[in-house]
Structure formats: C-alpha cells, structure tokens
Amino acid sequence: MNYKQIKLTFKYSNPKRFYRTLLAKQNVNLINLGCAIVTAFGGEFEHLFLFETKTRVYNPKCFMEDMVFENDVLMDNYTLSDLGDKFIFTYDTGDGWDFSATVTDSDVEEKDEDFILINGAGQGIWEDNIHTLKAYLDGKIDPNSYEPDENNGYYPPWNFENEKYGDFDNFNLEEEKQRFMENYPKDIISYKEGENRAYNDEALAYEEFELDDEEELPNGLFNSDFYNILMALTKDFIKEIPFVNDVYNKLLVNHKPKEAKELIVKEFLFLNFQNAKNEKPFDFKKFEKALKKII
Hints:
Blueprint: E1 4-10, E2 19-24, H1 30-40, E3 49-52, E4 57-59, H2 61-64, E5 72-74, E6 86-91, E7 97-105, E8 115-121, H3 130-137, H4 173-208, H5 223-232, H6 235-240, H7 242-251, H8 257-277, H9 284-294
Parallel strand pairs: 4-5
Antiparallel strand pairs: 1-2, 1-7, 2-8, 3-4, 3-6, 6-7
Helix pairs in contact: 1-4, 5-8, 7-8, 7-9, 8-9
C-alpha cells in the first residue's frame, strides 16, 4: 500500500507560511491521525481534536455524550479513507485551531512508519494563544519584539522556547522530522490516556445530573421542557448564524459543549417567550446582545 499525502494549512494565514505535509497510510485510525497532526504542529495535547467533512463530524468519545445529530460520529470507528480528499481538522474547539486538509495520492513505497513528516512551515500551535499568533501573522506584532502587550492581549507562547515572536518563521525540516519521530509514539499514549479521563469525567457528570420538574427557569419553562428543546437543537442553528457560532466557540473555552449549548438555548427561549407574550416577532439583534453578555 502506498501512502496518502496530506497537506494541512492553517485556515487563518497564508498557506505557504504555516502548514505541514504528512504521508499517512490510508487505513490509519482517525485518533492516530489526529495525534500525528498535533505532534507535527508542536501541540501539547492540552485539548481534544475533531475532523469535519461536508457530511460528517468525527468526534472524540467524550463529545459523543452530548451529540444527538445524525452527522456526528465517533472517530474511533473510522479511518483516513473515510475523510475523502478534503477535510477540516480542528484542535482545541474553543480556541479555533482550524486546518484545511487536502489528501492526494503518493508514490512513496510503504515503510514501517504509519506517518512521515515531509514538509512544513511555521513553528506550530501556540497553545491557548491563537489571538497572538493571528496578530503576528497579520503583521500587527513586531517580529523582533517579545514583550507582553496586555492592552491588546498579546503574550509569548508558553509551549515554545523563543527569543522573539519572529522565531515562529524559523522552521527547520530535518529537526522537525526528528522531533516528530521521537514524540509521536509518546504523544499518542498520552492523548489516549487524557481522552479516557475526559470521557470518564463527562460520564460521571451526567450521572450526577438530575432534572427537577419543579425547578422553574426564568422564562416559565420547566427544566424537563427546557432539556427536551435543548436536545432538539441542531448544529445548523449554531453554525449557520455567525454570531451564535462565534459565541458558542468562545463559551467552549470554559464550558463543555453541552453547557455552552444550554447557555445559548436558555437565552433563546427566554427572548422567544418574551416576544410571544408581547405578540412581537423574534428579534435577532436582541438575541445577539443577550448572547454577548454571557461570554
């Protein structure tokens, strides 16, 4: 079996400035693939990741406790071949490390390794600091500086030992290949242990959660009604309305997906109840203002 070639480019930068190109065997599991991608970009596995195509979202198992949509599936059960020739890889859904991936055939003969790093540019993922990296890539930060800027929220990355922001562009392919070969075997073990802990914590939280029909929400709906409507909420509602999607992603920094949705739907239900009581149409401007207050 020949390798497939995967080129991943950062969604918010010049594709030539921040990317990785990997060779991967077509039958590799998506968990292994995701770990290889994060390792290639220098991530510390402080967060989970997912894959998305036009028709499906491939989630880690601790996300699946909250998923009620037909297009959400467990990534454990799928391989690279299921993703097709284009997909989006997201690391740390709350921060928005999105990478556009293109899959092509390769004439490299099969070796022992499941993954091989063959090219790239840009230092890597600045953990919990996408805001600073985007500002640097947009030319808003002096490459020779390295002082925190509290007014603009710019801070040096904690997971790289740099002397200046411009070190981001010092990519040495041979050194990165060696780092990848050394770190990937350890990273995949570490990730799987962390995902299992997150899954167990999520399961425990749901076991402790009990609905109380007598506890009324501010909008007059009982929790059971609220929960049923919440579970009917689809991802289309979040994704197709830009300000809702933006608020949802920001909430994910400090909340689990289910909690983030609960906050959004609670505001939606409250405003909808008020409008219906006053016989007025739903006001999306008021909805947007209400959501911004909960971030």
